[in-house]
Amino acid sequence: MRPTWEKRANVKKKIILELKNVNACYGKIQVLYNINMTIRQGELICLLGGNASGKSTTLKTILGIVHPTQGTVSLKGENINKKPTNYIIRNGVSIVPENRRIFPGMTVRENLEIGAMHRKDTDQVKLDMAAMLDLFPRLGERINLLGMMLSGGEQQMLAMARALLSDPDILLMDEPSMGLSPALVDQQFEIIENINKKGTTILMVEQNANMALSIADRGYVLQTGEIVLDDRAENLLNDPSMQRAYLGGEF
Question: Which residues form the ABC transporter domain (predicted)?
Fold first, then answer.
């Protein structure tokens, strides 16, 4: 048997996640305006924008932490507007959160086991665990160390492996390069690209527009809660307005 996250590489490009005319508010303050996004199986989509542009709120809305005040969020065709976060996660969404947020007082192995805790396919989980340690050999070397003893780069690897062990239909990534050295940033994006090529659908929020677009299929650009650009990644990289506004490096 192959790891579950490698089995989707050649599947038909069905819609996994769709946002239609989504508005969202914090209290009485509206923060998202008519967001429309479509993510198909196997795609790597980047969501770009400056601080306070609505990127993290979009992820929270997908996860059910923030509920839309208008519009629809659909997961594999099901309206999940009013579904709780635990339901959404059990039904195929996983996240690598900003600043990693591993469990520092637990071992690497225990952190990984938490990622697969809702799964019943025990034999497949063992195979997937072995695949994660092949993908991230540093984690195998530190399997019995506490999370707090890992470097920042190793903690990011652990957060990614933990998320993948839930066998997600779509992996959300919130600022995966944050806090990493330039050398580790390059390594991180190589890993993300490799994971996607093996079939994992990814929606990535990232400040480093050049790096994100270099590996993405498509990109959306948010500005003050609205999508202002939406195109294939290579077109965004060559878009003069995009270059002037965003592609001087990071936002």
Answer: 17-249
d(CA 11, CA 3): 15
Mind listing the pLDDT tens digit of every residue in the chain (251 residues)? 556 555 555 555 899 999 999 999 999 999 999 999 999 999 999 999 988 899 999 999 999 999 999 999 999 999 999 999 999 999 999 999 887 689 999 999 999 999 998 888 889 999 999 999 998 999 999 999 999 999 888 998 999 999 999 999 999 999 988 877 887 888 889 999 999 998 999 999 998 899 999 999 999 999 999 999 999 999 999 888 777 766 554 44
Please name the residue ranges forming H helices in the chain.
55-62, 85-90, 108-115, 122-135, 137-141, 152-164, 182-197, 209-215, 233-237, 240-245
In the CATH scheme, what architecture does the domain 12-92+202-251 have?
A: 3-Layer(aba) Sandwich (3.40)
One-letter identity of residue 235 = N
